[in-house]
Amino acid sequence: MAYAWWLVLVLSTLLAIHNQVGTANATLDIGVNYGMLGDNLPTPADVINLYKKYNIKKMRLFDPNPGALNALKGTQIEVTLGVKNEDVATIASSQEAAGEWWADNVEPYVDDVLIRYITVGNEIIPGELGGNVPGAMQNLAYILEARHLGGMKVTTVIAMAAMGNTYPPSAGVFTPAASSVLSQVLAILDRTGSPLMVNVYPYFPYASNPKDIRLDYAQFTAPGPVVQDGSLSYQNLFDAMVDSVFWAMEKLGFGNVGLVVSESGWPSAGNGDLTTPDLASVYNKNFLQHITSMVGTPKKPNAAIEGFIFAMFNEDQKPAGVEQNWGLFTPQMQPVYNVFG
User: Which region is the signal sequence (predicted)?
Assistant: First the structure.
């Protein structure tokens, strides 16, 4: 009997592994940003079906678009829901204003859509609007607490432009302007058990200095360590950038706050030989593998970091050049290059 039980266990395990190999059966523990700055994009219902087809279980929306949220009802796709930058100051102005925003944009969907994060603004720290982020976060966090919605978290999204230094990673520090606001933001995140979100694009430092930054270092393909930072070895630029943010948070006294990479990707056109479908495919495949392997970073080994690819579609209403060429799919829902299978 013991041998038979062991054999059944082994066969069951092998079957599970087999089912996870093909993308038709595997759920991808990675998100994709669903941007809508195009005049030729599919309907939200068709987009949701595309997420389902490729078993993508996480979506980031930049604003509470009713069409997308209605299409998401009952899907169990985890949603990161953005507050538009222009709405942040209003939400911060009073608890009543925050309640009105919630009633209009979240309440109609909260029972049927799996909203995991609400992001208060996108890349507005530092900046004129950034000072409103802590107040808006606090007002929305109060609503979540009052409604006992502990599974939903409030955070914000920063760009690497909030960093005053990133090299070496242990020298990572926020700019003085960002630090003053992020100290308040991080205190809220620490209290509520929420992560900070950061947009991390190795493409940009590589494209600005391809002479000194190796392509394989930017694309996760270096055969060995490229940067040594004390006892920590870095084989890819992505980890170095992420760890610089971890170091910056630690220097503000919030070393226990987690990170979610809310955007990363590589454009497939728009900047000559630096932006090809092959390069975009290599980066995003390796990014997907890196995130789903849950290996963490040299500073935070084995600490899983959630990640989102930017973006679902090429969007023709963005500025010409690389900005229109981040999509995994054409507006006709055809793959621009291979990532998932």
Answer: 1-16
Structure-token match 């996480």, residue found? 58
The answer for residues whose C-beta is within 8 angstroms of residue 261's C-beta and 6 or more apart is 197, 198, 199, 200, 242, 291, 305, 306, 307, 308
- From residue 28, alpha-carbon distances to 51, 256, 302 in Å are 10, 26, 18
Catalytic residues: 123, 263
Written as tens digits, the pLDDT of the chain (341 aa) is: 333 333 333 333 333 333 333 333 455 689 999 999 999 999 999 999 999 999 999 999 999 999 999 999 999 999 999 999 999 999 999 999 999 999 999 999 999 999 999 999 999 999 999 999 999 999 999 999 999 999 999 999 999 999 999 999 999 999 999 999 999 999 999 999 999 999 999 999 999 999 999 999 999 999 999 999 999 999 999 999 999 999 999 999 999 999 999 999 999 999 999 999 999 999 999 999 999 999 999 999 988 899 999 999 999 999 999 999 999 999 999 999 999 87
Residue in the block written with tokens 């600490």: 303
Instruction: Compute CA distances 73 → 44, 56, 163, whole Å.
Output: 12, 15, 37
Q: How many CA atoms lie less than 13 Å away from 311 in the CB half-sphere?
A: 24
Q: Report residue 248 as tokens.
A: 């910056």
The structure tokens listed for 318 are 């963005």
Residue identified by tokens 């630029």 is: 237
Q: Output the DSSP codes for 255-288.
A: TT--EEEEEE---SSSSGGGS-HHHHHHHHHHHH
CA distance 45 to 55: 15
- Amino acid letter, 65: N
- Report the relative pairing of strands 173-174 and 163-165 from DSSP bridges: antiparallel
Max CA pair span of the chain: 70
